[in-house]
Amino acid sequence: MSLLPMQALLAQQAPPAPTETIRTATTHTPTEQQVIDLSKTKWDWMADKKIDSLATLFDDRAMFTHMGGTWGKNQELATIKGGGIWYKKATIHAVDVRVFGDTAIVLEDMDLEAVVGSRTVTNAFMVTEVYTRKNGDLRLAQLTFSHLLRPVKAGAASSERQLTPR
Length: 166
Fold this sequence. Notes:
Elements lengths: L2 H10 L17 H18 L3 H7 E9 L2 E4 H10 L2 E16 L2 E14 L2 E16 L2 E11 L19
Parallel strand pairs: 1-6
Antiparallel strand pairs: 1-2, 3-4, 4-5, 5-6
């Protein structure tokens, strides 16, 4: 009988937070490096609002999952062009890429500074990007932002704040 109160106490405790993260490999295959370079270029294009370049990169059936919803290519391009989200600066702390035939999956541990509406926010994300090869060229098929519980690592200005998902 003395075990019952202890079991009840243990059942109420939250499990420990996961501590694993990705690490950037010291070497990459040429294909892996091509995908990493393309992903970095994509972040530059998003920051610079290069809609034509992004429209070519994004597959017509691509999906984008944000903290506030999921939508397709046209909505993502309209959101970037209209300033609904301005991907100002992506600070990538680690990147991992896995290639499976004509599909590449990129994981990026990053801090993303963005202007959402009229607010500048910086968030810690694990971003998942899925690329597929179409007519010899890589196309982005899926981009998902997963909010991380870790604190922002990048030096955020005092006027910025971390956006909390709802």
